[in-house]
Each structure stands twice: as structure tokens, then as C-alpha cells.
Amino acid sequence: MRSEGVKGLYRGASSSFIGMAFESSLIFGIYSQAKQLLQGETESIKPQLQVIIPSAAFGGALISFILCPAELVKCRMQVQGRDSANSNYVRYAGPLDCALNTMKSEGLKVYFVVALQLC
Predict the structure, then answer these.
(1) Which pLDDT band, with edges at 50, 70 and 90, does 27 fall under?
(2) Which of 41, 77, 83, 118 suits 91 as a labelling partner, its CA being 20 to 30 A distant?
(3) Closest alpha carbon to 111 in 62, 67, 77, 75
(4) Is 44 left (phi over 0), alpha (psi -120 to 50) or beta?
(5) Where is the signal peptide (predicted)?
């Protein structure tokens, strides 16, 4: 707040809102498709736990391979700070630069390791 003010507090919030909308639609779509596949053609009025739980677990596991790499990039962008002289972290030009530099220095497996740790 001292160095960047209120604008600095909410910088990047719009991309987060868009990301959450995309994430929610994707997870509900995966869940819906998995539920329909497990439930079959019979449309039951009463929710069935043996269908709901595996469908939700599958959706959550699948979405983690998208969200975790995105969160890793987001966190690295957040910790870089505004003043590169006072920061011990690498300075990135943007999220794409961060993602590409992370892949160059740590390989593609870093994204999968982060996703698998949360599954």
C-alpha cells in the first residue's frame, strides 16, 4: 500500500476473475460429462453418491494439470516485486516470459510435479 497504493493492491484482479470463470466452466463441464458417462442414460432425480464422488474427483484431478502450472506462474510473478534492485527473484517481462523461463531452467516436469503434489 505504501509504495503502490490501492491500485497496486488490485493490480491483476481482472485476469483472476476471467481465469476463475474459465476454471469454473471447465470443471463443471468435465464433472457433467463424467457424471453422464457413469450414470448412463437413466436420469435419476435423486443424486447418487457412487456417481457424484468419482465424477467430482476426476474433474478435480484433471483441472489440477491446468490450474497448478498457472498458479506457479502467478506466484512467481507476484514475488518478483516492483523494484528489481531490492528483489532476489528473477524479473519477468510477463506471464508468458515467466512460463517459458521456468520451462527452460527447470524443465516441463516442474509443472507436472506441482500438479501431482496437489492431487
Answers:
(1) very high
(2) 118
(3) 67
(4) beta
(5) none
| All structural domains of the chain | 5-118 (1.50.40.10)
d(CA 92, CA 77): 7
φ, ψ (nearest 5 deg) of residue 38: -75, -35
What is residue 12's predicted lDDT score, i.e. its pLDDT? Answer: 65
CB 70 within 8 A of CB 19: yes
User: How many angstroms from the chain centroid is the CA of residue 119?
Assistant: 13
Confidence of residue 28 (pLDDT cuts 50, 70, 90): very high
Cell of 107: 524443465
State the Cα–Cα distance between residues 93 and 74, nearest whole angstrom.
13
Length of the chain: 119
Contact 11, 4 (CB under 8 A): yes
Question: What does the alpha-carbon distance between residue 56 and residue 35 come to, in Å, rounded to a whole number?
Answer: 8
pLDDT for 86 equals: 56
